[in-house]
Each structure stands twice: as C-alpha cells, then as structure tokens.
Amino acid sequence: MHGSAAARWSAMKPISLTRYLIEEQHAGRINADLRLLIEVVARACKSISIAIGKGALGGVLGEAGTGNIQGEAQKKLDVLSNDILLEANAWGGHLAGLASEEMDHSQPIPDAFQRGNYLLLFDPLDGSSNIDVNISVGTIFSVLRCPDGVTSPGDEHYLQPGNTQVCAGYTTYGPSTMLVLTVGHGTHVFTLDREVGSFMLTGRGVQIPADTKEFAVNMSNQRFWEEPMQRYVGDLLKGKEGPRGKDFNMRWVASMVADVHRIITRGGIFSYPLDSKCRDKGGKLRLMYEANPMAFIVEQAGGAATTGYSRILDLAPEGLHQRVPVILGSKSEVDTVTGYHHEKAA
Ligand code: AHM
Ligand code: MG
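Above: inputs. Below: predicted complex with AHM.
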C-alpha cells in the first residue's frame, strides 16, 4: 500500500523547483542556505517576469535617465530588476553580500539583517537593448562562497575564479519564462507555470550536442576582430565549398541569455570576441556575472567556454566589472575555434 503510494508520488511529473531543491539537499549536494538562496532568486525573477510582461501598460519601458559605472545608460527595467533582486535577497540570512552590473561596488548585507556565507553576483537584466522592442531578455546570476573569516565582504572578496562557483543560473523572459540552473551536478531547465506561479522541471541534465552548424556573433563587428576570429568565421561563411565542408546558419538575438538558451536547447557556438573597439576594456561581456555563470552552465551541459586562449572558468579575476572575450557552446566547435587561436599564437 505504502509502496504504491510512494511510487505514484514519485511518478508525478514535472516536479517543481522547490521539490528539485529539496531532493538536492537530501542528496547532500546543496545545503539549506543555498536552497533558500536559489528559491529567493527564482522568486525575484518571477517578479521581474511580471514587470516585463506588463510592458508599456506597466510604465516600465524606456530610459531611467541614469548611467551605470560602465558608462551605459540604464533602462527603467535595469534599475527595477536590480531593486527587486536587492530587496528579495537582503533579509533571508543566506548572503554575506551582493554585486551587480548596475552597482559601482558590491554591497555587504546591512547590519540590521543576519549575514550568511554566500556572495551573489548578477546581471539583473541582460539584453537591455531589446527591452523596448519586445525581444527576449533575461537575468544572469552566480553564487560564490564568502571567504572564511570575512563578515563584511568588499569587492576584492568576489574576485574568485569561475571554477569556484557553487551555483549559476539564468532566466529568459521570452514567450515562456525559463530558469536554467546548475549547482555543479548537471544543467537543468525549469519553465514557469504562470497560473500556479512555480518553476517546473522540464529538462533534467540537458546536454549540448558536441557538433553544430549554427553560429552566433555580431557580424557588423567583423572588420574589427582579431586575425584568428576573422579566419574562423571566414571559413564558416565559405560553407560546403570551404575547409569546413558544410553550410552554417547564423543567429544573433543580442541578448546573451536568448542566444545561450538556443545553444543549450539545440547546440551552436556563441561568440563576443575581442575587437579593436573594445580591446581597451578587455572585451564586451563581463566576467563575473555574465561569462563565468554562462561558462559554468554550458560546461555542466557538456559544452565548453573559452576566451580563445584560456578556459573562462580558470581566469583569475582582476575587477568586479572586468570584461573578457567569450566563445562558448558545442564542444567540438569551441575546440575548433580554439585551434585557430593557438595556430596564431604558435
Ligand atoms: P547588457 O548586459 O548591457 O544588456 O549587455 C550585454 C549584451 C549581451 O546580452 C549581448 O550578447 C550583447 O550585449 C549584444 O551586444 P551588441 O549589441 O554589440 O550586439
Ligand atoms: Mg548583460
């Protein structure tokens, strides 16, 4: 009797994010604080999803009239999403501090609240240029451990290589809202059930196909790229008649979350390479809250992530808002592009 009831319950599909996290905790793969942290971030992302869904009717579109430390004009939704994540994460007792694309410096959890052992970094709204044209945007986040003995973390305590991340995730606010998550045991995909208000597990242990015929890069920057990237993309464009012997398709959403999500779903290679316009800054995408979490998610799904010369997750960070070249996706294709870079370096 009991056995059949248990079998019936465990056969219930799909399971919620809450159940997934409790099962991970019972399996000893996460602790209660990390479980709470992920639940809180997911809840904040639901609020962001609701605000985005209202669009012009919610008065959330357009410029905020302010700028961030990187000299970028902030949209109203950049600021709103940042505030939602800050407020949600302040009081739970699971964090020692937070850092965001939209804040000049990290912030320790205020003295009024209990502090925990984790550091949370996020890009509250990735793909800002797509907000006002109703194209998918997202949130990207990364979780690190606060170094032992540090109770009020400063920026320097966040400068840990990506291979020390304990969790990474992104949400994509598209036709459906999805959360993609890793705690270092595979990459899992959840879809928001809008009526119930719960993220439901719709893809367990997703795997990126190793081979691909699809690439994502902003081709308008082609003439500014360095030689290995020029040669690599040049060979893709030669198609069947060229050295790669097959035709490639191109996609570029200009929201990293959407481009990476396509790769998680059906494979492909994504690149925002170094170019002469962004060389002084080190690249376009930010290491700590864009490249590192995406690299962790992609590697956990069997893919690879590199600057062309080094594995992203092994980079030693030098600044909270540091930028890096990013190439990630299907493993064989990333290995191929790495080969072009090493030929140049040799
Ligand atoms: P954001 O975090 O300010 O939105 O900037 C990052 C975005 C990525 O999502 C995307 O891949 C890239 O910038 C698009 O850049 P571009 O407009 O140069 O193609
Ligand atoms: Mg971004």
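The chain has two domains: 13-203, 214-345.
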